[in-house]
Write a structure and sequence with these properties.
Layout lengths: L1 H6 L12 H6 L5 E3 L3 E3 L11 E2 L13 E5 L3 H12 L3 E5 L11 H14 E4 L3 E6 L2 E5 L5 E5 L2 E4 L3 E3 L1 H8 L6 E3 L9 H14 L1
Parallel strand pairs: 1-12, 3-10, 4-5, 4-10, 5-6
Antiparallel strand pairs: 2-11, 7-8, 8-9
Helix pairs in contact: 3-4
Amino acid sequence: LENRIRKRNISVRLNCKVTPREIREGGYDHIILALGASPVTPPIRGIQSAHQALDFYRGVKPEGKNILMIGGGLVGCETALDMARQGYHVEVIEMGDKVAPDSYPMHRIGLLNEMENLVSWRCSLKCLEIKGTSILCKNEQHQTVELEADSIFYALGMKANEEAVKELSAASDVPVSIIGDCKKAAKVYEAGRQGWEAAMRL
């Protein structure tokens, strides 16, 4: 991709936050917004003491070796697997009846195959409260279960960055295309497809 960008003399600016002023004064003919999504932090008591899953990729190192990952969607499972590959013991806690239900079927098969050797998980457990290094859950029988770990992370969904989209879209009369997670939090295939379609329409 980098070679293709260089061959086509495409200008790329990194570490640069786009502002409404730049949208107004940039002299653009068309704008494509791909502003992504942000993690959801649900109102679970004590959640402020836990780390969001993506914090692991921002350099947050877990305390100790035993980790609880609340949320068994694609982000929670893939992050748990990366943690396990770095030597951590990770257990995923999922409210539904299976982990990674939002993954594509073939990808899910490969993901679970990798997880079986490195990560443990429990389904049908709803997190009620985070108490320091332990969590209180409710199982299918409505019984309270307490689980302990050295560190607690969570991956409980993503939300489109709608406010940023609204601000930049309203900054000028230039036509705007909205693609990827800032339109609706989804997967990389949808984002790539939307980007290609937006470019082909220009």
